[in-house]
TrEMBL record:
<dbReference type="Pfam" id="PF01764">
    <property type="entry name" value="Lipase_3"/>
</dbReference>
<dbReference type="InterPro" id="IPR051218">
    <property type="entry name" value="Sec_MonoDiacylglyc_Lipase"/>
</dbReference>
<dbReference type="InterPro" id="IPR002921">
    <property type="entry name" value="Fungal_lipase-type"/>
</dbReference>
<dbReference type="InterPro" id="IPR029058">
    <property type="entry name" value="AB_hydrolase_fold"/>
</dbReference>
<feature type="domain" description="Fungal lipase-type">
    <location>
        <begin position="54"/>
        <end position="191"/>
    </location>
</feature>
<protein>
    <recommendedName>
        <fullName>Fungal lipase-type domain-containing protein</fullName>
    </recommendedName>
</protein>
<dbReference type="GO" id="GO:0006629">
    <property type="term" value="P:lipid metabolic process"/>
</dbReference>
Amino acid sequence: LHRVHQQKGTVAVSLAAVDKPPKLMDTMKVRHLELVSKGQLVQWAVVEDGNTVFVAFKGSDANISDVISSLGAIPVQHPVHGLYVHTCVHTSLQAGPSEELGVAGRLSAILQQVARRRSVVLCGHSLGGGYALLVALELLHANSARVAAVMTFGSPHVVVPSVESRDWKRLSAITCHFINSWDAVARIPSQWEWLEGTVKSVLSTLEVKTGPVKVGVPFAEGVTRKVIDHLHATYAALKDRVAKYDTVGAIYFLSPGVAFTMCVPTDGRTRSHHEYLRKTPEEWGWFVFEQHSSIAYLSVLTELIEHADGLRRAGLFAHLSELATAAPGILQSRCKCLERALGRCGGGPLSGALVAQHAST
């Protein structure tokens, strides 16, 4: 691993110190790695691949505590760009070995050495996607790197849209937000129906064992009702603040075994995209968490990329730029987002981002 950042106290480690070194494509090279340690809450890596530099943030697969804790994530105004962001995510990004520089500051110094004139793609799964978004905002505001794209996989909502903000517009124009089927985490905390439904589905399946006695569904239903009532009360007190969170950029809804994706742009004014975000399954179950796993995203997106490569080889993507130019309004936006996400060769930045973020996880 090349140490490229000489800031005092930076965590720079050898890949030999990692129990399971990440499996990257042959063309990829790890240039910097920061692991979770004392005072360091965010794990991330800088990976170069030809003319692109990927910054991958490690997330975590969903658990019920993540869902419940999202309720209390009151937005806080960022001191630099002024947008309101997720309190916990913002605080984590400010922690680290340096008292003066948060993650964005340390990354900016590294990219000045590594990226130079190359494009930078930030990516992350789950909470890692939230980190990627907030760091990208800081980089865009400071114009300290050529941020070409931000790709999040099952990321919770961590930014309050501001359609008048230049920084938010720039971030939204380059962000691709992927949602796998009924992934619950990718719809919170702004969608109350999902917060209530996921908690109910988990608690209703609980079985509590006390010695030889197993307390099943009746007990769980009682606990479920109390928890839901508590969530209602908590949400009622925080709704005006928590409900302001939203997605950023183009939202891609994925389904296993389906060789295409539905793209819906984030509309910070009308929030018309919530028509799709608030849809819930007919029945709740543990699958809302299983579909959030990094393995699930890797599988469904790999299928999509392979299918897109087949279409490209057949010449069906040859005139995508012309179509985007000629297409009116929303179709034009979707064509451009699709071209940006899939790239022109081998899945482009999406392939690289997917590999980099999965390796970091």
